[in-house]
Design goal:
The chain is built from 24 helices and 18 strands. The protein is α+β, with helices and mostly antiparallel strands and 608 residues long. It has four domains: 107 residues, Sandwich (Jelly Rolls), CATH 2.60.120.10; 115 residues, CBS-domain; 187 residues, 2-Layer Sandwich (Beta Polymerase, domain 2), CATH 3.30.460; 145 residues, Four Helix Bundle (Hemerythrin (Met), subunit A). The strands form five sheets. Strands 1, 2, 3, 4, 5 and 6 form a six-stranded antiparallel sheet that branches. A four-stranded mixed sheet has the order 15-14-13-16, with helices on both faces. Helix 13 crosses helix 16 and helix 21 packs across helix 23. The chain is flat.
Length: 608
């Protein structure tokens, strides 16, 4: 009946074409007024309700136990089991689809995946969505063209070039193949050709490269499918193939780049970073990160893998940028570190700069340090990395000083606790080295860990910020959105992500579990091994954290790709039914974790 019914939302996305047609024919639309009773407790409903517009409340006696809104279905279990446990009443005038009970039972019986949806855990539903993304990923590769992949620029040498000189040229240009012209023809030479000629055939390195070039080489057109290139490479046992455009070689496709396109494109970005010859080239390479994240995220890449990948690429950029700007002697006698989410390997996009510079004691003059640090921060701003709102950047003298000065500051952070010092301490706890002499960082970090003693007063103050922000979830599990300037939006960072990150960090710090570059997931696992967090709850906590990070990334990407300013808010009305359910469940777990922390660290002492 209605043509506007969406089969994109779960569980209706699990129906096959015939089932969709049967459902469409049987659908009806109904309208109900406020306070109208839809289902009484003990009744057996005749339809499954799918809300188009409006709101329904679920009652256990006089107590409200849940709310349902657009895209929600409710009380499917009563259709399966026969009777409704609770009552359902219209909270706000309602328009909804009615799916007949007979058809619903038939669908759950014949379509196993559809029926399982109503008994799956939220984590299982999330896994189902990821499996769909994997299928889409494969499909996108099957229609991708050669021009969509990274093509190496053609490098042509003279026919008189020797194998030795060609090898040096390839090494310096960081390429694995080149072209050579001879008698009007274009020959192709790869690293494998050179290896076979010298190592296997015993040719001299003074042999002309034109004499070992392949002139009847396999080629492919820029508009052909990537899948065709993979077939050709497999068939001919080759690792690179010249790409033709209008009868001319326009570039070379290498196997590593083909495989990278199939997987995640990250190799291409890393390659651009490594091959950047100056700051401008590095800036161009950094522009590839956000599109890469968008592609990976849309294909269903797990957030934990994505954040680790982004962190690695960011650190490559920071390292090369620092080495471009700082004199070699300064690089040897200092250590550039990243802090916060970058330090924990949980960065999801180009968000705030959180970095610092530790100088070997008595190494440099203040003027030179300031020049380097200000140039570094400015360059990152040009690359698209926003300034840190708390000014935790190397351009701030407070975050670029000697080992001795950092140790003095660390002692003050610990002995004179307040809101500001604990923010600094928390950031430094998560720090990791990126460039320079890592031993300078290790010395300073070891000092920090040696000064933290396990006492209730310190950790109570350190953990206190988690109770500063309310969990945006009502007593009946309804999402509580902002009013005023951010009306209709939910602060996912302070309301959900921060309590998990900081709570886990505090427990790990208290128990000496901060060795290495551990992120929040690793720290939760370590806390489980020490029997500090129960295994079952830890699993839920990690799932909640993963979902919240994923939701944050979706929101950030949406704003970034559309040119909007990036912030920490999520528009709840844009979320699907499954996403809202997962968000509610995740925030419920956050609230439960906060209760554990309040008891453990005696945070109730700070309650008004």
């Amino acid at each position: 009946m209605p043509d506007s019914f969406s089969f994109k939302n779960p569980p209706f996305d699990r129906l096959n074409e015939q089932e969709r047609q049967n459902l469409t024919k049987s659908l009806d639309i109904a309208y109900y007024t406020t306070d109208e009773i839809l289902i009484n407790a003990g009744e057996s409903p005749e339809n499954l309700y799918l809300i188009i517009k409006g709101e329904v409340k679920e009652l256990n006696g006089d107590e409200i136990v849940d709310f349902y809104t657009s895209q929600d279905t409710f009380d499917a279990i009563s259709l399966i089991k026969g009777k409704s446990k609770n009552s359902f009443v219209v909270q706000e005038e309602l328009i909804c689809y009615l799916i007949p009970k007979k058809l619903f039972i038939e669908l759950t019986t014949k379509n196993k995946s559809f029926g399982q949806f109503f008994s799956e855990s939220l984590a299982e539903k999330q896994e189902h969505q990821l499996s769909i993304a994997d299928t889409q990923k494969l499909a996108s590769f099957m229609v991708a063209r050669i021009g969509d992949a990274y093509l190496h620029s053609q490098s042509i040498v003279e026919p008189e070039t020797t194998i030795r000189d060609a090898s040096i040229y390839m090494r310096d240009k960081k390429i694995t193949s080149l072209l050579v012209k001879k008698a009007g023809k274009v020959g192709f030479v790869s690293g494998i050709n050179i290896r076979d000629a010298v190592v296997i055939s015993g040719k001299s390195t003074d042999t002309l490269v034109a004499d070992i070039a392949v002139f009847d080489h396999v080629t492919i057109d820029v508009d052909d499918f990537l899948f065709d290139a993979q077939v050709l490479m497999t068939k001919h046992h080759i690792r690179s193939i010249p790409v033709m455009e209008n009868g001319e070689i326009t570039g070379v496709l290498e196997l590593t780049d083909l495989l990278s396109y199939i997987s995640d494109h990250s190799h291409l970005v890393a390659l651009k970073i490594d091959r950047a010859e100056d700051i401008k080239g590095l800036e161009e390479a950094s522009k590839s990160i956000t599109p890469m994240i968008f592609t990976l995220h849309s294909r269903g890449t797990k957030i934990q893998h994505l954040t680790e990948l982004v962190t690695d690429l960011n650190r490559k950029i920071f390292k090369r940028l620092f080495e471009f700007i700082a004199p070699p002697e300064m690089v040897k006698n200092s250590c550039l570190i990243v802090m916060g989410s970058e330090g924990r390997r949980e960065q999801v996009l180009k968000t705030d700069q959180d970095n610092a510079l530790i100088l070997r004691d008595d190494s440099f003059y203040e003027k030179e340090v300031r020049r380097v640090c200000e140039a570094f921060t400015k360059a990152l701003l040009d690359f698209g990395y926003p300034p840190c709102k708390g000014n935790m950047m190397v351009s701030n003298p407070e975050w670029s000083k000697s080992q001795k000065e950092y140790k003095t500051a660390i002692k003050e952070w610990i002995l004179k606790p307040d809101g500001k010092t604990h923010v600094k301490l928390a950031a430094f706890v998560d720090s990791q080295p990126v460039a320079g002499d890592f031993s300078i960082f290790e010395d300073t970090r070891s000092y920090l860990l040696s000064k933290i003693v396990s006492n209730d007063s310190f950790f109570s103050h350190f953990t206190k910020p988690i109770i500063t922000f309310d969990t945006p979830l009502g007593i009946f599990k309804q999402l509580q959105v902002e009013k005023g300037l951010h009306s209709g939006r939910l602060d996912i960072k302070t309301g959900g992500i921060f309590p998990i990150v900081h709570g886990v960090r505090a427990l790990a710090l208290e128990n000496g579990l901060l060795i290495g570059s551990s992120n929040t997931f690793d720290r939760i696992d370590a806390l489980v091994e020490k029997d500090i967090i129960e295994k079952a709850f830890a699993k839920n906590l990690k799932e909640a954290f993963q979902f919240l990070l994923n939701l944050k990334l979706t929101a950030l990407l949406g704003k970034s790709m559309s040119g909007e300013s990036v912030d920490r808010f999520v528009q709840t009305h844009t979320l699907s039914k499954l996403e809202r359910d997962l968000l509610k469940e995740s925030l419920h777990i956050v609230r439960e974790f906060k209760s554990i922390l309040v008891y453990h660290f005696k945070l109730s002492l700070f309650s008004p």
